[in-house]
Structure formats: C-alpha cells, structure tokens
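sanity check this fold:
=====
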Amino acid sequence: MIFWKKSPGFTVTVCCLAFIAARAGNAQSQRAKNVDAEVRQDNSAKPHGRAGFLQQFNDSLEALTDKVAPAVVQIEVAGYGPVEDGSGSAAAFIARQHRIGSGVIIDPAGYIITNAHVVEGAQRIRVTLNRSPASPTSALDAGSKSTFDAKLVGIHNESDLALLKIDVAGLPFLLVDPKRTVRQGELVIALGSPEGLDNSVTMGVVSAVARQADPQRAMVYIQTDAPINRGNSGGPLVDIDGYLVGINTFIFSSSGGSEGLGFAIPAKAVKFVYDRLRKVGHVDRSEIGATAQAISPALAEGLHLPVNSGVIIADVLPGGPAATAGLKVQDVVLTVDTTPIGSLPMLEASLYLHPTDEVMTLAVLRGKEKLTLYVPVIQQKHDVDRLLDMVDPEKNLVGRLGVLGMDVDSKIAEMLPDLRFKSGVIVVARTAYRASVVAGLSPGDLIHSINTTAVNNMDDLRNAVRPLKFGDPVVLQIERDSKLEYVAFEFE
C-alpha cells in the first residue's frame, strides 16, 4: 500500500520500498513455483511413501505374472465316466464326459505336470498353451498353433499327479527346487483355468506348510488362501521369485466355491513323482528296512516311553539299511530330514518321497537320549517291474493295442495280492506304438473285458482285437488300483 504525503521524498521512498518488496515477493513466488514443479516432476517419476510402495508392489506382481503365466496350460479331457440316471437309484450309466483343468510345463521339451484326477479315464487329452503377448517365445510365435494332443506318460494316484507330453520344444517352464524353503505367511499366486476361464491369476499367502488333510493318508499339503476353484486343479502355486511351490489339487468348501481353504501338492513331491514317471512310467517306494506304528497312551504306559504320542519303531529288518545305521526297536522317531514327525502318515510320507540316492537323517529318542542316525534309503521295486523280468517281447506282445501283457495265474496273483479279480490280462509295459497311447492303458492295468466280451487270458484278448477295423469303438473294462473303470477309444 502507498501512503501519499506532502513530502514528495517520503512518498517516493515509500513507493520504492513497496516496489522492492513487490519484486522480492514475485521472485520468492516464482522460486516456490519452480520448486513445486520440480517436486511434482520427481513425484511422477519416483512415487514415495505409501503410494510408492503400492506402485512397486503392483509392478512386482505384474512382472511375476508375465514371467510365470506362459508356462501354465489349459487341459481339456474327453472320455467316458459314470453319470446318474436322475431317478435317485444307485445305478449309474457310462456317458461321454468333458473336463477342463490346468497344468504346468516343467521341462522345455514339452513335459507337463497336472493332477491325476484331471486326466482320469481320458480318451483324448488336449493342451492349450498360453499365448501371452507379454512373454513371447519361439514356440508360440504369432499365428502358430497353440493347441496340441498330449499323451499320458504316467499317472500316480497316491499323490494325485500325472505327467503329460506334447510334441513341442523350446517351451517356457517353471523351476522346481525341492530344497527351497516354503514359509507360513509368504505371498503366493495361483494360476490356471477356474471354471474354464484360462490364464486366471489369484493371490494369497501360505496358510500352512505341511497340512495333513486326511489323517488316514500319508500325503501332506501346502495350505493357501489364494482363491482356487474348479478348473484350477493341476495348475501351479508360485512364490514371488517364480518358483513352483506346489500343484493346486483340491479345496475344502461347503458352497462348492473358494472359501480360502486351498491345498497344493508340495514341490518336493512334484519333483520326486515327475522324475520317476518320466524315467519308468510309475513311482517306486523308498524304504529303510524298518516298520513303525503309532504310539497310543496304553502303548506308552506299558513300554514306559517318555512320550505318549508320535511314532515308534516296531521292527528293524536284520541286515537292512536301518539296522546298519543303528536304528533299534522302541526308538521314537522325532524328525526325518529336520521335519517333525507327529503321526504315522507323516512318517510314511517322508519315507515315500525320499530320493533313493540321498541318505536320510533320522532323529530318534532312545529312552531319554536323543540320537541322530544317517540311514541309507533303498528302492522298493514296483510290482509291475518284477513282472518285466518274466515277459518275452514276442510271446507277450499284443501288437494291435501296443502293450505287453501276461495272463493272471496263481503265481501272478500271489505277487499282486491287491487284485480284486484273479483273472484277466495284466499290462506289463507299453510299446512305442501309438495304439497304447490312444487306448490310455498303463502298466499295472488289468484288462477284464473288451466290448462286453470277457477277457480271461491273452488268447481271449488277441481274439477280441483281431477283427477290429479303423474307427471301430473299443471299450475296455479294466481294474486300476483295485477299482474298476472303462477305457473307451476309437481303434486306429
């Protein structure tokens, strides 16, 4: 403000001071504007505070998804299975079925892991690769084929895992490290095709690292709250570094949808089963030459044990690996390879999945003394492997089905005590012929009939397949893992 006085000098002085103040104020205002512009520019380039952390978290999730999604596939299965007739009766009809699941590529040569229940009873398996534009690969160039017929390499129902193979090379794949530690509370993402919606991603945490969902089964699972629904089966659970944590397999749900209780087969089990299926088509058990049983309160009191629950060694095979390592009857098992053992199924799971080329570290309680033993692990030969030594490739070949088979006589029935029916033809091995792949037969399958014609021996089977022509429908009734099912296909 300018005050006009009679003295012109005063007036001028005031005017000059006001002008100088105004200039100073304008300069300060300009500097403030410049600083504000620089801050805004810096904020746009480098977010800070909470917004910055959220942006970094978002960018990390996007990068992780771009990295792992190309290795996830959708699996479509066509086959035959039982359906109810709607009358409420217990009877069931066999009808053509179509299922969609997920899988994950774990080898660039086209090997894909999925759930056994996804491909159970499959007549035809088709795999659709993820054509992610963010992560192009040589195998998925623009305009290239993305859906392929897959063959079943092997299946392992105990772990609910199956191995598929497609004739494509150079595929993106996920790393599986069985020694990588999984921690409760760590972030994970689940990928797959829930309800057929391919290339879907959900996020959650590891709720538990070793959940025994069924007290009667040896399998333990990784529990997660990442949303999993029908169609996610066989897809991967992945950590923030892009490693396979597990294979999503089932949920606990009262509504049929995700309720935050999802379960995945751990990477250690996936790697073990994959290696065995790829090498020999089935999974051998590992053993140490000892028998264990659960500790009951009565057992603990009668033997004066220092604990009243857990697992106790009941027998040690003389001269076996456990005996050589110093394991004794009445030893209480505490840990296997640092994993606490609280139940008999947990011990069985640890033994079952332990590689045969690695020594097992066993911590036991003997009286009040804690001991650490190093026990060699041996391979228990699969029942079907024992039959391979007895077959003649020429005499036992059923060329039109592409399998080697044997009559189930009294000797074979004694070797395979779990068979429900002691007659038929057991598949000992598959040949390189495509017929065995189309038929969906696996070593250990027991053939009981073909197109309603009973099969009691090799002659019956050969006589039944001899008149078949290209395109004829074929329905085999087989016994697999003590359960009867149908395998249907068109003859090629």
In short: DSSP finds eleven helices and 27 strands in the chain.
